[in-house]
Design brief:
Chain lengths: 444, 311
């Protein structure tokens, strides 16, 4: 508390005492001096007042301290520590991790009236995120989620709730030679969108291409990830990620999954980030994924990706106006076992692109275009494709609550037959607890 | 003989030209905001190269660290920040830099909040988001008291001396000089703002408690119903009524808040809204820490005389 009034009492009091008689003599002669004396006197008065307040506060605190020392809880604590009981548990909740609960609710109204999954509200995900430092150089992260799914969209409504371990890893963020290492289960560094949890998505749904190539909820696998900040003469941010993982991205993962699940998978992501002028930034990335797609490892599958993110913020009111442009491209080449024709090599591609403009402090509006083919191994969907166009608006109450309304038109080509669907989608996300960080281009 | 002299002269010349370079490498300082950057420049004048991550007008609480910040941090000797929970993006940034000295407690990590007496410290056990965007340790806008600038300067001088002990005396001297300048500035501005002494004002966000206290102004209310929560029309109408009843003439707003709302409120309450600089470079012409206070005091006086004086 003393630091609040640096040095004033020490030099001011003699000064005031010295000046007072002079002021008395010279009063009425020098108005500037009179003013100075008045100001100093006032300051002394203020200091005196503050001092008596402080004294009062100290007395109160001393009383409280005495009460605490005499309380049964304190007596208990003293007993525990003297007997050695409870050693190691004395830190109480102080070293507990940061905990955040995210809830992501969705709703949709679709022109496809028979599809029950597209005509109802659903609890898309409730997620709990724990994170804490394990050591000065390492953090631990655990993310668990419960999601809701309609078993048969065209049959009787039966909702299944699935528990999922989304991420569980240790992250050594500060290692020698500009390295970092992640070990455990984590969202894989393929492109930009895949790194986001559902509640951080910029639109209500994940882009169709991400769903088709990496899985409905993106790709998260168990393994290790090494990241290197590549030194370069241009002094730009260049990061290379290399991941060696189980090729087990879950049943619905098209490349790292199914028959590939027993094999290892290798991923690589190279990212270049650069500021553009004072107010913009550009990020470019390339991704690569390789695995064996059959148990005997005769067949292979690989996926290439490229991504671009541009962000601009208004220099004068950066919290009120911004523009975000992002696009990702996917191209895969996979072998799969065909019922009659033996092994077939198939290649597919897809992309998404969106633009989002912030037109007020808490309002964002955007457009997204999607196109994708399906690299589903072993399924005869090699000629299928799907495209979509969406328009959305997002509103934030604050950083802990977001509401989003989206219109989506989908066109599908399945086994040579086309159909289309229009849907109105609603998204409501909120969080409880602390607020972990997220990528720079994601709003709040 | 003359060869020897020449040799000595050459050696001396080399020493004279080389020594200052060897011992004189500048300290590379990266600060979170422009205010800390200016204070660092003044304390380390001639010996430091300073760069701020923020530009001035933006809200420190909402900055999202870009990868280019990481590049800047990795090249720096010292990273200066406000500490507490003022800049929630800082912990992630220092981890992303992959430099052990930048981690909390590391030699390069400089938290300038040390020694500051905080205002608006919430009572423990009563924290919740129902209170809006709260700061759990207390109000973090402490640099808006010019005398707290001296404490910050002291922390900076200590950090500079740690990485460059040979110039410790210089940093000490420049800190004393800055302290004197801030003391004189405070005195003269307190005198200047004398006509407004004890006046009550409305502030947009809880940015100004240190500033108001130092310059003997009082806060009637905030425009935001809760910190970080945008006000609704009803709240504005009620507040305007309250202002009229109490004869409040000034609405203080920072550059990153919604100035239109502040203006609307001022119109309703027949008062004046005045945009103040919450950081160095937040407004054109506010190029130094001292200029920030001069600008803010003059802006208040000007707005007050336009609104016909504030009781």
């Amino acid at each position: 508390m003393c630091a609040m009034r640096p040095a004033i009492p020490l030099f001011l009091i003699p000064l005031v005492l010295g000046l007072l008689p002079a002021a008395a003599v010279g009063a009425g002669e020098d108005p500037a001096l009179t003013l100075t004396v008045e100001r100093l006197a006032r300051q002394v008065e203020e200091l005196e007042r503050d001092r008596s307040k402080d004294r009062q506060r100290i007395l109160e605190l001393e009383e409280r301290l005495a009460d605490l020392d005499a309380s049964p809880a304190a007596a208990g604590r003293a007993q525990l520590s003297s007997s050695g009981v409870g050693r190691g548990g004395g830190q109480g909740n102080l070293l507990n991790p940061e905990i955040t609960a995210f809830v992501d609710l969705g709703g949709s109204l679709s022109s496809d009236g028979d599809n029950r999954a597209r005509n109802r509200f659903n609890l898309r995900e409730a997620e709990i995120d724990f994170r804490a430092a394990i050591a000065p150089q390492a953090d631990g992260v655990l993310v668990v989620a419960i999601g809701e799914e309609i078993e048969d969209p065209f049959g009787a409504v039966e909702v299944s709730r699935e528990f999922e371990l989304e991420e569980a890893y240790v992250n050594f963020h500060t290692l020698p030679w500009d390295l970092a290492f992640k070990g455990g289960k984590f969202r894989n560094a393929f492109g930009r969108n895949n790194l986001l949890h559902t509640h951080d998505l910029p639109q209500v749904t994940r882009p169709l291409a991400v769903q088709a190539f990496l899985g409905p909820e993106g790709l998260a696998t168990v393994g290790g990830s090494l990241s290197w900040l590549v030194p370069n003469p241009w002094e730009q941010y260049v990061e290379w990620n290399a991941e060696f993982v189980n090729a087990d991205g879950g049943e619905e993962s098209p490349i790292l999954g199914g028959a590939a699940a027993d094999n290892p998978g290798f991923l690589s992501h190279l990212k270049l980030f650069s500021d553009v002028g004072d107010t913009g930034s550009l990020e470019l990335g390339t991704s690569f994924l390789y695995t064996h797609t059959s148990e005997d490892r005769d067949d292979t599958g690989y996926l290439l990706g490229a991504d671009l993110t541009y962000l601009w913020r208004d220099p004068q009111q950066p919290d009120f106006r911004s523009l975000l442009l992002q696009g990702e491209l996917f191209w895969s080449k996979t072998d799969f076992a065909h019922d009659t024709a033996g092994t077939i090599r198939d290649d597919n591609w897809g992309f998404y692109a969106f633009g989002q403009y912030q037109f007020a402090q808490n309002w964002f509006a955007g457009l997204r275009y999607d196109y994708t083919e399906f690299p589903n191994l072993g399924e005869r969907r090699r000629d299928d494709s799907e495209w979509g166009a969406s328009a959305y608006v997002s509103w934030y109450l604050n950083e802990a609550l977001r509401l989003r309304l989206e219109y989506q038109h989908l066109g599908r080509d399945r086994e040579g037959e086309g159909d289309s669907e229009d849907a109105l989608l609603l998204g409501l996300s909120f969080l409880i607890g602390s607020h972990p960080g997220h990528p720079y281009w994601v709003n709040r | 003989m003359s060869g020897l002299v020449k040799g000595r002269t050459l050696l001396l010349g080399l020493l004279l030209t080389w020594l200052p370079i060897g011992a004189g490498a500048e300290i590379r300082v990266v600060t979170t905001n422009t205010t800390l950057a200016d204070l660092a420049r003044q304390v380390g004048e001639g010996r430091v190269r300073v760069e701020s991550l923020m530009r001035g007008p933006e809200n420190a609480h909402n900055v999202i660290p870009k990868p280019s910040f990481v590049v800047k941090l990795r090249k720096a000797d010292l990273f200066v920040h406000l500490g507490l929970d003022a800049e929630p993006w800082v912990p992630n940034l220092v981890r992303a830099a992959r430099r052990e000295r930048m981690l909390p407690g590391g030699e390069g990590n400089v938290d300038v909040s040390r020694g500051i007496a905080l205002l608006e410290v919430p009572s423990a056990g009563a924290l919740s988001r129902a209170m809006g965007d709260i700061h759990v340790y207390g109000n973090t806008h402490y640099a808006l008291d010019p005398l707290n600038g001296s404490i910050i300067a002291g922390n900076l001088a200590e950090a500079f001396s740690r990485v460059d002990p040979t110039n410790a005396a210089l940093y000490e001297e420049q800190t004393r000089k800055l302290e004197r300048s801030l003391r004189e500035l405070t005195d003269s501005l307190q005198e200047r703002i004398e006509p407004l002494r004890g006046s009550r004002v409305v502030v947009y966000h809880r940015t100004w408690p240190y500033f108001l206290k130092r310059f003997s102004l009082e806060k009637l209310a905030e425009v935001e119903p809760k910190p970080g929560i945008a006000p609704g029309p009803r709240h504005i109408a009620d507040l305007a009524e309250r202002m009229k009843r109490s004869g409040i003439g000034l609405v203080l707003v920072e550059t990153y808040s919604n100035r239109k709302i502040a203006e609307r409120l001022a119109d309703l309450a027949e008062a004046r809204s005045v945009v103040l600089a919450q950081e160095v470079k937040a407004l054109p012409g506010v190029e130094s820490y001292q200029a920030l206070f001069r600008h803010n005091v003059e802006a208040l006086l000007a707005a007050s005389s336009e609104s016909g004086g504030t009781p």
